[in-house]
Amino acid sequence: MFADNLPLPLVLINLLGVTGVVVWHLQGRDRPTARLIVQILFFCVMTAVLLFAGIMPHRNDDQYLQGAAALLATSARVLWWTHLAWSLIGFVRIYIVLEKRPREARLLQDLIVAVVYLGVALSVLGFVFNAPIGTLVATSGVVAIIFGLALQNTLGDVFSGIALTLGRPFAIGDWIALGDGTEGRVIENNWRSTFLLTSAHNVIVLPNSALAKIGLTNLSRPDETHQISLLIRIAAGHSPPRVEAALRTALCGCLRIVHEPPPVVALKAIDAVAIEAELQFRVTSPAERTPARNEVIARVHDQCLQDGLSLALPPQAYLYALPADTGTQLRSAGAL
User: Fold this and answer.
1) Cα–Cα distance list, 306 to 120, 130, 246, 300 (Å)
2) Domains by residue range for the chain, with CATH
């Protein structure tokens, strides 16, 4: 079946395979495109030599070879499958680089690489060494079920991490708020957990399975500007236009808030005691909320003193601020 000069192409394939391995390592990870091009060239040349020699990588039909020739045939097929795996992995890495995926995409990349290596390993065992793949797969399935039950929580975190990577609800550096009130900046995301740095400078480690079940708000999208609302109560004896003008002047004098879009003064309600005004303004990031709120409160206080505006009492203080007979009547009406 095999020609007399068969050992020559086998030697050539082995030399090409070993040379390809050396060149692949010398290229380094910093040049993925050049690395992939060289890898494809070596793989194509090895494939051409195999086909020219009449050797099929997926069939072990060289039983007639003995000694060194049989060893060369086996190593040639192993090297061919190895270069096939590296070529496929090179395509995966180039695809992710060209698509400008975030660092979290490394999770998905590692999963694809593991699948490629597993498939090639099974192919080598079955096509080169004639191992019973069906028995191996069945045994591996039983082992996988045992490990799956033992590592159920860990696997849940892993697959939740993959789902978060594909959905991309956040990226490294984003500030997120969870449904339970937890807030922080994402500083790391791996196979199992996501790490948040809170405003208190503490690191919270969240399992990906728990994070995938909790509703979250990404405060960094579409940008990090964050709106704050502050309720101010001014005595009803002042005219609403005067109150609005004073509060708007106070906001314009604040340095820690964003002035484009401009802050808003919304008059919400009025009664016999107070005019309620809601100040709506933005800050550059969630971390600036407390300093900005403090500055706005200080500016409003100073502006009210400057314009002669009086702050109103809170609603819960009405009964204690009214005359005794009026307070008794109100409490009696409430009892009824």
Assistant:
1) 79, 92, 9, 10
2) 7-149 (no CATH), 165-218 (2.30.30.60), 226-317 (3.30.70.100)
